[in-house]
Structures are given as C-alpha cells and as structure tokens.
Amino acid sequence: MQYVIVDIETTGGNPTQGGITEIAAILHDGDQVLDRFHSLIDPQRMIPNFITGLTGIDSNMLEGAPTFSEVAEELHDFLRGNVFVAHNVNFDYSFIREALKLAGIEYNAPKLCTVRLSRKVFPGFRSYSLGRICEHLSISIKERHRAMGDAEATVELFDRIIKSSPDVIFQTLKKSSGESFLPPHISKERFLEIPEGTGIYYFHGKNGQVIYVGKANDIRSRFKGHFSSSSKDKMRLYNEIHDISWELTGNEFLAFLLESLEIKRLWPKFNKALKYNSLNWGLYQYEDGQGYLRFQVGKNSANLKPLLEFEFHSEGWKYLMDQVEVYQLCPKLSGLHKTVGACYDFQIHKCKGACCNHESPEDYNQRVLQFMDSIVEQDGAVMIKQMGIYPNETAFLYFEKGVFAAYGFLNKEDAFTDETEILQNLKKVKHLPETKYILRSFLPKISLNQILVVK
Length: 455
What we know:
Elements: E1 3-10, E2 20-28, E3 33-40, H1 49-55, H2 68-79, E4 83-86, H3 89-102, E5 111-113, H4 114-121, H5 130-136, H6 147-164, H7 166-176, H8 188-193, E6 199-204, E7 210-216, H9 219-226, H10 232-240, E8 243-248, H11 252-266, E9 281-287, E10 293-299, E11 308-310, H12 313-327, H13 344-347, H14 361-378, E12 381-387, E13 393-400, E14 403-411, H15 419-423, E15 427-428, H16 435-442, E16 451-454
Parallel strand pairs: 1-4, 4-5
Antiparallel strand pairs: 1-2, 2-3, 6-7, 6-8, 9-10, 9-11, 12-13, 12-16, 13-14, 14-15
Helix pairs in contact: 4-6, 6-7, 11-16
C-alpha cells in the first residue's frame, strides 16, 4: 500500500469558489519517500490580500504558472491508486477532487486525516493544528503555509504515526472505506464503484427487483448513511439488498424529480409514500390608493388566489428580493422595507422613488407588469437550465403547466436555434402532477436567466 501526502494553498475556503494556487504531493510507501510532485498554479482569479499575507503568494509570483487543467492529468497519474493523506484531509481532498472534476477527470480515493490520527496516537495535546502538533513533536517546518513546506512536515508526522501505531492506520482505512458495515451481499469492490456525484440510486433484491429508490448529492456517502443505524427497517434493508445501481443527474433539482417518477413507477417495498409539504405562503399583489401596484408575501388564504405559492415564508421573501433586484422594483412597495418615508434603496439611488412619489405610478407599474408577465409565462411551458453531469453539459428540464414533462443533457458547444429544437432532443417522462410541488419548492432558488419560455 502506498500513500500520497498532499498540501495545497488556495485563494479561499470553498472548493467551488476558491482557486488552488500551489500543490505539493509526496509519495510514501509506509517506510520512505518515493517521489514528489510540486507546482504553483494560476488560479485565474484575484488573490485576496490576507491570503498573500498568510502564504506570501501573490499574482506576480504566479505569472507564467500553469492553470490547474494544464497539470490535471499529471497530478491525477501521481495520485491514482494511492491513499490520499493530508492534515485536515477533507479540505485538500475536496479542492483537488472538484478541480479534477472541472477538468473532466473523476477522482475517488481512500483518505486518511493526520489530525484524527494524531489525536489517537498522540493523545493529550490542547491543539492538533499542523503548527502545534509539529511543535509538540519537535518536527521542523521549513516554510509554513507553503504547500511543500507543510507537506514535508506532514510526511514526517505521518511517518511517526505509521511507525508508532500501524494498526491505527489499517483500522481507520477499513472503517472509512465503509467495509466494517457493508451489507453482507455488497462487496468492498462494488462499494468503491459507487459514485460520489449527484443523482438517484436503486437498491436491488435477490432477484434483481428494485426494493428502494433514493436521491443524494453524494450517492456513496448516502449509501453509507443508510446503514449507520440499527433500526428495524434499516436492518431489514441491510439483509435484503444484493446490489445497487444509479443514474447521475448533475443537479439536485433533477434528482428530486426523477426520484418521484421512479417511486411512482416501481412502488419499491422499502419506500414510504411520498409526502409533499403544504404550500402555506403566497405572493399577493394589490393596488394602493395612489395607483401603485404592490406585493406582499403572506399566509395563504382561502379567499385570495396568490400569484405563486411557497412552502416557507423565507422562500417567498428570497424570491421577491431577487425579483425586486431584477426589475428594479421598490422594496417598500414590495413589502420588504417597513418605513414611513422613502425606502433605504432610494437613498442609495437603487430605487427610482415610487415610495415617495418621485416616480409616477404609470412608469413604476410598467416594470411591475413585466415581472407579473414572467410569472404567468412560468405557468405555461418553460425549460429550466441546470448543471449537467459533466462540465461541458447543460441539463434542460421541461415543464408544461408546472408539471415535469421532459429532460435531457446537451453539449454546451452544440448550437440550437430555438427552444423548440432543444425540446426535440429531450426525453419525455410520464405525467406526474405531484412534480409541480417540486418545481414550486425549487423556484426561489432559480434565477431568471436559467428559465426559457417555450412559445
């Protein structure tokens, strides 16, 4: 067994938003260092001043450095087949995996965290940060907060851990792989084939029949979660599952929709009936005494028909805030600002002044009607763009009168003249009225530029 000890420097803490600026990886066979990989990386974005202050890496230093995509294959070859080791491993692993995914490379590996291992092997210290644990163990760090300096210190720490207590390494790998609680008919090899992507999954019984359908943002992690408790229902499923299959969707919205369709189609024995939460809140429109059209998010009423419905007040509030921004509406007249005089946005020149009669009702209401037209159009036939399974794809979800009707994945490079041509390339699905509840629950999360009206 071989290990690759990794450390990275980044522009921020979010793997989907921050960029990698430096990578160091050191190959170790459990006894000694075998090889090294190191590169500065052009993150193709600004480096915050506080990051430069911490690492010393600035834009000038990265001039001429390769982008991540340019080193992706070489790095993947270096990592592949080895245990991924890092101090606070989830940080480094999530950045590397996300960057490889954007480069079109799927990467999955067993992981070890030297923070957790150090707590087990060297108990009793107040802090297990890399600087502190190295100080406690008299391990020198040549360049703190630089990838190779921190990686070399982590190698020495890992070397001491594995030589002091090799059993801890092997037990941790066994536990983290899911092998310790795998159902009796699922092999470790089959488990490692399960993707960590977003989609729906099927549990199959002895004769191949589907006994459960689920959805997940990370299918492998969700699989492990199914068997982390010993409830009666979980134990029955644990003993009856003989295989798992899956369909990746690339986004949570489509996963919700396909799960509903498949449960309705297959009626698996371990799926409880789908329950949809009540849509208790609505977006209401009215005209005030001066002729301005106003909005309010409020509790649903049997006597009034809302423009849109929401499960939670916060969903309606967020949706209305976004539309106020898009259509340059007044926050006060939209029920978002509670004030006697002009709204705060008028003071900073974001509102045109309908709240203080600076803008006429006629001019203001034109934009209100544009917003209301967009809502009416959403009740017709619309296509919603979402993230695809691969970086070069876009997922299209088609709805007719709010009900899911078709979907597909189209290459971003393909040129389509209109929405009708896109629709011809989508896969039709069975009409399921319940999918309108899923659309409504996701609607506040969808921006207008993701919605295509089909005429």
